[in-house]
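Hi support team,

I submitted a single chain yesterday and got back a structure, but I'm not sure I'm reading the token output correctly. Could someone confirm the output below corresponds to the sequence I sent? I've pasted both exactly as they appear in my results page.

Thanks,
R.
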Amino acid sequence: MKNIDTSGVVTKKLKEICPAYKKSPSVDVADLVGNWMTVFTQPEAIDCFTVHIRATTEMEREIYTTKYGNFSSSVDWSRCFLQVGTPLGKHFLQGNGTESGLMENIIIFEDKPGEYQLQNATADQWMVYGHRGSEVLITRDCSGETAAAFARAHYWPKFQELGAIFHRSGIAIHANKNTLCQPKGACNKKCVETPRFNRKGSIQKLNKFQVP
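Hi R., thanks for writing in. Yes, this is the structure output for that exact sequence:
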């Protein structure tokens, strides 16, 4: 990340990257690797989707440097350690997470054949809570408008647990429980369908539990 020193020292341009920056614990980028399921979003609820985060290799980062360039020094590929895959496509995270989990979203699109553009995107702060196998990943948009929670597959947290985690992270959670992510399907107002994953991380079956 061009404005964050590798030691994690805050530079004077930090607020330019993250206007809504809040001091938070650092995050080890290796802890983000794996399959995650969206369980909560605010201010708007969305349909559940799976997020796959993987580590990039040194060779891949060298290839991206040659293929895409640095977009007027906006991207330092040597510090893009993670690739994020969602139903909308793939993008990269720039930063090592030492400065309160702050990482920039590197989203590239092909404007013309062989010509690439960098999409304007806000950065996020990332936080991980819980023990291995039952972690909850929190992201806070640097505009201060949105927040989301992801659970590591095969885990599904209760709403009360999410509330406690959001409180610890300094995010004011909305009282409306309808923002709890719900897969598409016939789940009535008194229940939430939770996914049961197979070993490959795909949804195998939906379980129902009562919303307290």
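A quick pointer for reading it: Residues 1-12, 184-212 have pLDDT under 50 and may be disordered. Let us know if anything else looks off.

Best,
Support desk
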